[in-house]
Queue: 3 jobs
Job 1
Amino acid sequence: MPELPEVETVVRGLQTRLVGEVVAEVCVRWPRIIATPAADRFERELCGRQIIQVTRRGKFVVMALEPSKSLLVHLRMTGQLLWAEPITTAGAPEPPDGDVHRHVFIRFASGATLSFRDQRKFGRLYLVDDPQDVLGGLGDEPLAASFTPQVLGALLRPHRRRIKPLLLEQRILAGLGNIYVDEALWEASIHPLRQAHTLSDVEAERLHAAIRLVLQRAIDNRGTTLRDYCDLQGQPGRNQEYLAVRNREGEACYRCGQAIERAVVGGRGTYYCPRCQSV
DNA sequence: ACACCCTCCTGGAGGC
DNA sequence: TGCCTCCAGGAGGGTG
């Protein structure tokens, strides 16, 4: 599933291709993919606008448009943004069709096409005047300079909740998902069921470093591909080779050799080492 | 405040 | 081989 590193990889790819492009044609095949406005208005109001800037906020792709609107994309579970260069061959099918999972096509004046593909149709696109309407509730960016161990400590202290579901909460910390929370907790030797407010300053510091390490390494590896994730060109990431616990049930912990266990925490499959992640 | 449930979806896995 | 049921999971909503 796309989390912060996967979205960051997609955004970096879009930055080099999309800025300056002008939308020529929009086609929505599955209207419910468009969160706002209604799909027909989305098609009309996106046309003619130019992409000024592409950034990331949490797991959202944020495209600033001129005249002033913002196009936001959330990939959720299986969403993909795919880029196709202009098709020069006369008579070639355009936009690329025959793929029932491609739900939105955006064709640019240059002839290039950006399409949104999503097997499970959980992903959402938003066309809004003010991106804060969608992004306003998001918590801290874990890779921002302002996110310090002290900030993390202050975020955790008020909560008696279990640490894992809390870290998945986007209004607390924006960008972590099921994979990287498990990886960060293993890296920091903290049990997923640990109550957030019981973390010591030293543990908060360890968790802070672990979150940053795990996310940065995944960005350097262009994301984790367990099943569906791919970049703009359809290429998988390499970070799956660096996972310590995810999908390693029964295999030896890289730190202590104990068998990795799987449990369900907050309804999510959770992988951890029962020996070196203390409750 | 927090745990738990449901909904949205569909491919893949497991049971028989 | 084939059919059927179950399941994962991000986020938002509701309930206890």
Job 2
Amino acid sequence: MRESMWRQIAEDLRLKIESGELGAGGMPLPSELELRDSYRASRNTVRDAIKWLVTRGLVVTRPGQGTFVVQKIDPFVTTLSTDINAPRESTAYASEVMASSRIPKVSDPRIEIQQASGLTAAELHLQHGTSVVSRHQDRFIDGVPWSFQTTFYPMRLVEQGAEWIIRAQDLPTGIVGYIENVLGIKEVGCRDRFLVRPPDGAETNFFKLPDDGRISVIETIRTGYDQVGEPLRVTVTTYPADRNQFVMTAGKVPAEQTRALPRG
Amino acid sequence: MRESMWRQIAEDLRLKIESGELGAGGMPLPSELELRDSYRASRNTVRDAIKWLVTRGLVVTRPGQGTFVVQKIDPFVTTLSTDINAPRESTAYASEVMASSRIPKVSDPRIEIQQASGLTAAELHLQHGTSVVSRHQDRFIDGVPWSFQTTFYPMRLVEQGAEWIIRAQDLPTGIVGYIENVLGIKEVGCRDRFLVRPPDGAETNFFKLPDDGRISVIETIRTGYDQVGEPLRVTVTTYPADRNQFVMTAGKVPAEQTRALPRG
DNA sequence: CCGTATTTGTTCGTATGTATT
DNA sequence: CAATACATACGAACAAATACG
């Protein structure tokens, strides 16, 4: 069976884009009317072909301007610590970004008092409706939103004296270290969960993702436990899948510059 | 500005689908002609709305049958070992699946001799064109393709006497344990890389993913190193993002039944 | 600032092909 | 074979966003 015409046009455009024949140097593709003439098809058929390219993330269309090829993002590689004594997430982030010659920026923490529900109630072993403190931070690399993170603490930690949890400031020791210093409650282990899912509206907006849900987000959920096995905090971090990779080591491995992996 | 009509229709359909008013129990949605009449729009406009739902993965269309809502897959949670002495991947897989009351199946290994290139050459520190052995296995859960895995070994291991690497059989100790027994080369550490990317053609076909690249695959690349820091093998595992989650623990954490996390 | 040309976005209509029942 | 339902393709008109003189 012969391929549909819009599919053939899409494939031809894809090849010409990947060879650099079209769209090189930020130039727009030929307009829909020009493509209609050159392919001897109707404008709607050309639009079907372009829509296929848009869905695959190869091009973007801008009303009044034209159709442009998207440039690939240089991904950042996050090191996942398998060692509970590794440096805290907050401090590790900036140094890791700078080690790759890029500029990190972290927003000031945004504090909210919320009621435990769903994930937080389950992970922190709290009744639904119990108060939790959430600390939220947005993280940028070279000015581009790269990930964001929300950590939930049981309100009882504040009531027991760890009052800086509800201050909108970063602490040099990190909040987890602060809790250990003030309350003697130490995080001796954590469980990480990873999942990949479509972005919600807020994520689509913040990360400037295409609104068709084509780019997934990676969500990591880290629950920290104290000496008696009680959950101390749960940290939810969200990474757009188009600009993030992860690396983790176990046992003895030779050191190596962390870098993004190309396809091969 | 008012929302476009196709967008309004899509939103209305989405709400009716999520409330169960439409498509419940495997029933098809109303046909495009019926929707055209009920929304007082053209069939093309209704199709634009349906295309939006298809792109979001809410429905699938089948020629001659109708439009159906997709049911959510119950994800499987893979435990990532942070301990180099944990049981081998191959043996761990089946027991972990059975622990969640599901039926694992692993295909017989498919062996190929290939030339190192790109990823394998870089990770195994081999010249391009050097021979490598690839062992490939497909993994199923309840009969559904769930992941597949390819491990690359330098050909010199076979030449040094580890000849079972090129036999299409599973070994009770796993290949890595076999190499240790025969050659005395022990894997003392490994580096895992994680990335999320659109599926290629083979993956789309094997996992029966929609051909618009909407569902990403999660790729993990595990490179194992021996006592002298030389790479021993590299294992590439591919998981469709719509049916896989991961969990990893560090330090001391209370035991818990691994389960998929819902959104909340 | 304004008006015009260009370009993509939306919506309609119609006809024909292909897959399934 | 016939009926139904989605897929493809064409043509047309107007709206909205943008760029430019």
Job 3
Amino acid sequence: MDMAFDMNEAVASRARQAADPDSNVGGIAVDRLRSVIERVERLEEERKALAGDIKDIFAEAKSAGFDVPTLKNIIRLRKKEPSEIEEQETLLDIYRRALGM
Amino acid sequence: MDMAFDMNEAVASRARQAADPDSNVGGIAVDRLRSVIERVERLEEERKALAGDIKDIFAEAKSAGFDVPTLKNIIRLRKKEPSEIEEQETLLDIYRRALGM
Amino acid sequence: MDMAFDMNEAVASRARQAADPDSNVGGIAVDRLRSVIERVERLEEERKALAGDIKDIFAEAKSAGFDVPTLKNIIRLRKKEPSEIEEQETLLDIYRRALGM
Amino acid sequence: MDMAFDMNEAVASRARQAADPDSNVGGIAVDRLRSVIERVERLEEERKALAGDIKDIFAEAKSAGFDVPTLKNIIRLRKKEPSEIEEQETLLDIYRRALGM
DNA sequence: CAAGAATTATGAACCC
DNA sequence: GGGTTCATAATTCTTG
């Protein structure tokens, strides 16, 4: 009985490959490939959820009377060093004056 | 005595505003403004962390011999309906044939 | 002799299609397809050339001691209405004061 | 008469600066600044016009029954070497097979 | 050559 | 619902 198994070993092997996520297909480590893809997809889901949360907060802020572009502007400024902000604003002022703006 | 209070109420009020995050400054609800900004910043931090994680996974995959652009391609495909993929590939083939590509 | 004509009509037709850019291939108006693609490619070339010119100007300006990010900032400002600039700067100032920035 | 020259030189200089676009303002070469900005703005205008032309062509193509995303796809492909296209398609196929897609 | 920034293109969201 | 603006994603180019 168990000998019949040997006869079809090649075929059985191929069948296992189809069923077994750990096998190689065309020289590709299928299990690792799946792992990479699924982990990235998972993280992207979380990122998307956070983006939704942020959007909700801005919508709420808008309802409360805040100006959303200005809020975003503030958040952008807060990422910079105060000295960097100062420096850029100074330069901008110089150029604006030079142009009479 | 209690009159002194009234006399300086305006000044005292301004002093409280400077110290009290719940007060209004220039018609702006400061506490709420802070809340909005800090919540968004918190979520953006998390988003950034996730982006870093994704980057790490791709770097690891690259080290393991995977082709990163192709991985991204696969992930993009998996977001679409199979019928949509099929449709687009069919159209592309038709146009390529028409142009002899 | 004249029968050979008919017999091979289908083949001959396909041969003509291969040679004739005005023919249809798979229901596609090949000549029009080519026209669309080549016109877009031509315009994209021009766009790319202009992008190069702009880059050159900024490089030259940088050599002359100008701060390129500030130059871009100025150009961005000049696209807006003065009233719009004023309005946005006022709002930003209010929020910054409210936050003690 | 020539003495008035010296006495009011500083004031006269400032007056000239205000009137003369070639002067320096705050250490900035105003004429050169203007030149840079206006040249860039000119080129950006042209770029914008070309972008509009491209948009028009795609709109026309859409009306004629072409699928615009596929057209863009074709144009992207035509920018690549045939060998590069082949290579990428092969890799994609391998990964898809490995994942049973 | 890799990493980072900057630009461009695509897709989504908002307003009309 | 369509058009326009805005955000994100990808590609490209520069710099270390």
